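QA checklist item 7 of 12: single-chain prediction sanity check.
[x] sequence parsed
[x] length recorded as 428
[x] structure emitted
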Amino acid sequence: MSSNSVSTDRFRPASRVADQNLDVWTIINEAASASPVQPIINMGQGFYGYNPPKFITDAAKEALDKVDCNQYAPTKGRPRLRKAIAKAYSPLFGRDIDPDTEVVVTTGANEGIFSAFMGFIERGDEVIVFEPFFDQYISNIEMPGGTVRYVPLQPPKNGATEVSSAGDWTINMADLEKVINPKTKMIVLNSPHNPVGKILSKSELQAIGDLCVKHNILILSDEVYDRLPYTPFTRMATLSPEIAAQTLTVGSAGKNFYCTGWRVGYLTGPANLIRYVAAAHTRICFSSVSPLQEAAAVGFERAEELGFWEQGRKEMLGKVERFCAVFEELGLPYSKPEGGYFVLANFARVRLPENYDFPPQVAHRTRDFKLAWLLIMELGVATIPPTDFYTKQNAWMAEDWLRFAVCKEDDVLEGAKERLRGLRKYMQ
């Protein structure tokens, strides 16, 4: 055996990272760089197009002048932030949250979710996820050896012909119960939902919660868009003491305060569950960015008195309405979000040009990838094809939809609308 073959075998990567298809983010970002229409208007990824409010950025700058804020934070999070989170959320959950035992601060919500999986999922355990899903869920579940079981949200029957509500994306509870078995360890919920914008109704949450209590299943409730509800919003852990005892709730200071790059997330829940999330978090990254935790603490301490939550909710709803006006103008149906900052629009009426030169990485993908490529190359607008958030067998449900992030400055939204008017020549 040659030394080259030995070295190739020795340095072969683990299958968990090697056996991956080209992801949607790489395809869209490379297309955006190569587009002849520049500068690209990025309506794809869900990062804010503007800074956090001044009271937050001032707090971050002040924290950099404090010695203790420039050193390791306690592994469960800076005490001031944990106390601020507990104080802000105790009224919302209808009980007193213990900042010392029922809160853990993580390096973004994503690392917090990963810590929850690492803390509870072992090889052979199964986790239920609804389609479409936040793509990080899947790898995060599979890393510790878990198996994902999928239940699709059913899209609105009239979604291709008329404007619908994100609430019209429904869960078939019979399908959900069918995938539950003795190996089912956890279920992942996301409300308000990315990318659909659906807020799970109280009755839907109650039905899911009752199943989880009946079968002794842990609930991971991803509520990172909790400050952007446009319709009544129920928190899973408020439904009953029995459901609360099985629920870990995920939050995001980055989403709350327009600073996704800060990577400050948090989980709340019963002490007997949080301790194992914290144990996994300690081994994954030990602690999270200290000065930005201090700034996030100030955010939670002052947001209510400054009217920040309500102002932010109204402003984002205004952006949704402002942007969706172009779909009304073009006669393209869309799904009105009940929360969050994503909009799904249906492009069934948009005709792909015959013999269009799609690259190999797009040519074999579903129609939404081709639509996204067309928008980037011909109109200079980047969006996200949502079939990447589905299994192959259910991707057909979303092949006519595209996801737009409206958390941008108003002039960016207006620029995107102007370019999208160029779709008229492709419509039938």
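[x] summary fact logged: The longest strand covers residues 184-190.
[ ] second reviewer sign-off
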